[in-house]
Amino acid sequence: MTRMRRIATEEAFSVPEVAHALRDIVRGPSSSLDKLLCRGIYDAETDESGYASMNFLDGLLDVEGERLRQMDQYGVDMHLLSLTAPGVQMFDADTATDLAALANDRLAEVCARHPTRFAGLASFAPHSPKRAAREMERAMGPLGLNGFIVNSHTNGEYLDDPKYWDCLEAAEALNACIYIHPRAASDTLKGPLQDYGMDSAMWGYGVEVGTHMVRMMAAGVFDRFPKLKICVGHMGEAIPFWIWRITFMNSRAQAIGRAPKTELTMAEYFQRNFVLTTSGVEDPLALRYAIDKVGIDNVLWSIDYPYQPMEPAVAFMDAAPVSESERHQLYHGNAERIFHIAPLAD
Ligand code: 1DF
Ligand code: MN
Q: Which of 6, 29, 93, 312 supports an S-S bond with 127, CB 3.0-4.6 Å?
């Protein structure tokens, strides 16, 4: 008897070139809320958030050292790596396009060196959508990567905006899932999220990505791209809990002309077009609820390393109140299907 394969699906990394470019951004004039956290990670001397003391940068830049050692120690077979938030979306479109390609090259190299230990989600620059679509084809073709990552808004705009639809069209055509990961709330959303440490993972990230998801569903994006798959972390960014009310209120808004007509209900889009991962929500009741709400085929395990420690994420899923066949799907079956990861030979 071998133990169950464990594939973690929201695992962050970076490369020195992107880290340096983010340090330049935090020293520049931008007033974006992402600067708070990015200072803590990339420019420790100017940190005002306290993040610097967590020393995330070492964990992000390391893939084949300490990370792999911990994966061995805790029985984590594979990390599905993605360039950490905010990815390339704070850079101008040309820089973002170049750095996405560079990060994707590095990612493909590390996956090729360790084909059973690492898979990867490719970055792209939404603000140059035509070039992004070509990079997406390169990533799923010659680079052999496994899907895409985008860090929510780009310059305060969301993927319901048709200017980004080349990217959605490419993902759908490639049968490749887009993981919408958080970044700090856009300038137009950030106001009351800036105090008490609420800006990032405690609350702001979920507000940002949940808003993004509802915008896409309510805009009818999935009528245009019915086969598009979107993955979100953090047990669905609270949407599983809200979806009944979102559905009810959206149908009312449609009836009185406040929302566009859509072919399906919000609940139907959520069921058909979204999958979710457990990152950073190690609550057995929330897991059970999410599975019962969206179906066992649509929930995947993740750690969110290095922002969350590996050992408790494994302990959580080992002990979760699910059947053994459900645990198989959570730990690897769904990840293999959604992210084109070869199953292990029996
Ligand atoms: C944090 C959390 C940072 C997540 C992240 O990337 C991140 C954090 C900069 O705790 O500040 O990916 N997360 O996904 O929850
Ligand atoms: Mn994360």
A: 93
